[in-house]
């Protein structure tokens, strides 16, 4: 089976994918799958550009939900310091620093089941402030009702991240305090409020191959498809029920990126959590499979991410440029200056190159 039989036609989003069609993609010989994914990728994107976002945890830990992978759930004994909602000024300082490092989108995450009415004014000020810095804004605050989604949309929030996490079939093994339908309802409220949707999941939760197929079918059949699809590799957290689940085979992870790329041809596919445990070659294979977005910065929400310098070195090795917002020339120049500085540093005798 090929989605690119007629190479003059660009693959378009479809919302009627069946599990057997998607399973057939997973079963392709690896090289055929990678070729199809890269072909589809080139129809809609510059293959040498990756979008970069920075994450900030604006409220950490003490979450009432029971997500079995999460360091922030109050139900598990993890080694995490909880923190109250950050002050708006501190958030804006972090956003400014992210911009200076070349990020184009600032994503603020809170360990909440859902935002409370008393939190909303602060959160809305964060959106307005970050937007005023010229960054794209993203938030992930848990479930949203229609009214909260409308308030965030009105404040200028560009993206809302809310993951399906896994298949509907496997879901109850992972979370019991909110339903799959709750997640779909939040995504629908986000859409109705006119924001872009960022939704994906986590691989390596002990799910089966059929669950990974099922999750991707669910995402692709959302209409419209999510603009951004984060694919996270489980970061195992000591103290959580999934701390010693079996590792997912790396080729299976790469196949998931490739299948996501093929069935969601116009979406950014984000190589999200788990990069700190991947070597350069593994990340390069993910980019070849069609991943075109990452988180920049040494911390995700509570866990480690590769150092920015290490990522810039990898991008230099692969000839990858970072995507700019709507051809922002100043930002492109600023980023060029940062990249040149890293190369100069790399060439100096005193620079320890952790990437080699
Ligand atoms: N509390 C909000 C919620 O869950 O809706 C927002 C923040 S939550 C940390 C955002 C997403 O991060 C989760 O849905 C999950 O997909 C991902 N995530 C959390 N912990 C992770 C881990 N240990 N490894 C990989 N992904 C993780
Ligand atoms: C997403 O899908 N991945 C990001 C973002 N959305 C919010 C979060 C990853 C969290 C990884 C574990 C941690 O750092 O706590
Ligand atoms: Fe709470 Fe979000 Fe972690 Fe679930 S994933 S425990 S909702 S912070």
Number of strands: 10
Number of helices: 11
The distinct bound ligands, ions and cofactors come out as: S-adenosylmethionine, 6-(5-methyl-2-OXO-imidazolidin-4-yl)-hexanoic acid, iron/sulfur cluster
Mean pLDDT, to the nearest integer, reads: 89
Largest beta-sheet details: 10 strands, parallel
- Spell out the helices and strands N to C: HHEHEHEHEHEEHEHEHEHEH
Q: Name the overall outline.
A: globular
The structural class is alpha/beta
Beta-strand content: 5-15%
In whole angstroms, how far apart are the ends? 39 Å
- Unreliable runs: 347-356
Gyration radius over CA = 20 Å
Helix content: 25-40%
Q: Characteristics of this structure?
A:
356 residues, alpha/beta, ten-stranded parallel β-sheet, 11 helices, 38% helix, globular, disordered C terminus, binds S-adenosylmethionine, binds 6-(5-methyl-2-OXO-imidazolidin-4-yl)-hexanoic acid, binds iron/sulfur cluster
Could you characterize the architecture of this molecule?
- The structure is a single chain.
- The protein has 356 residues and is an alpha/beta fold.
- It has eleven helices and ten strands.
- Strands 1, 2, 3, 4, 5, 6, 7, 8, 9 and 10 form a ten-stranded parallel beta sheet that branches.
- Helix 5 crosses helix 6.
- It is globular, with a radius of gyration of 20 Å.
- The relative contact order is 0.16.
- The C terminus is likely disordered.
- Bound molecules: S-adenosylmethionine, 6-(5-methyl-2-OXO-imidazolidin-4-yl)-hexanoic acid (DTB) and iron/sulfur cluster.
- The site of iron/sulfur cluster has 8 residues, from loops.
């Amino acid at each position: 089976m090929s989605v690119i039989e007629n190479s003059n036609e660009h693959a378009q989003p479809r919302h009627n994918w069946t599990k057997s069609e998607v399973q057939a993609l997973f079963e392709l010989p690896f090289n055929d799958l990678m070729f199809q994914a890269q072909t589809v990728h080139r129809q809609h994107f510059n293959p040498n550009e990756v979008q970069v976002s920075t994450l900030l945890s604006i409220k950490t830990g003490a979450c009432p939900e029971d997500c079995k992978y999460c360091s922030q759930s109050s139900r598990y004994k993890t080694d995490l310091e909880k923190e109250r909602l950050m002050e708006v000024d501190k958030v804006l300082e972090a956003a400014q620093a992210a911009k200076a490092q070349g990020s184009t989108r600032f994503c603020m995450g809170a360990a909440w089941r859902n935002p409370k009415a008393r939190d909303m004014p602060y959160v809305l000020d964060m959106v307005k402030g970050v937007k005023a810095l010229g960054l794209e804004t993203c938030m992930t605050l848990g479930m949203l009702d229609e009214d909260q989604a409308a308030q965030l949309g009105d404040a200028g929030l560009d993206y809302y991240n809310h993951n399906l996490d896994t298949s509907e079939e496997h879901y109850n093994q992972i979370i019991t305090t909110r339903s799959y339908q709750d997640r779909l309802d939040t995504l629908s409220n986000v859409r109705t409020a006119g924001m872009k949707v960022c939704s994906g999941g986590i691989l390596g939760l002990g799910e089966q191959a059929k669950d990974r197929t099922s999750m991707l079918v669910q995402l692709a059949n959302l209409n419209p498809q999510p603009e951004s699809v984060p694919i996270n590799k489980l970061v195992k957290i000591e103290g959580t029920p999934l701390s010693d689940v079996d590792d997912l085979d790396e080729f299976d992870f790469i196949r998931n990126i490739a299948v996501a790329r093929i069935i969601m041809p116009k979406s950014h596919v984000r190589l999200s959590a788990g990069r700190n445990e991947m070597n350069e070659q593994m990340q390069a294979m993910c980019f070849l499979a069609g991943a075109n977005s990452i988180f920049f910065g040494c911390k995700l929400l509570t866990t480690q991410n590769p150092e920015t310098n290490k990522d810039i070195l990898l991008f230099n090795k692969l000839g990858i440029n970072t995507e700019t917002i709507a051809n922002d020339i100043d930002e492109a120049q600023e980023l060029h200056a940062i990249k040149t500085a890293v190369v100069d540093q790399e060439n100096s005798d005193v620079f320890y190159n952790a990437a080699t």
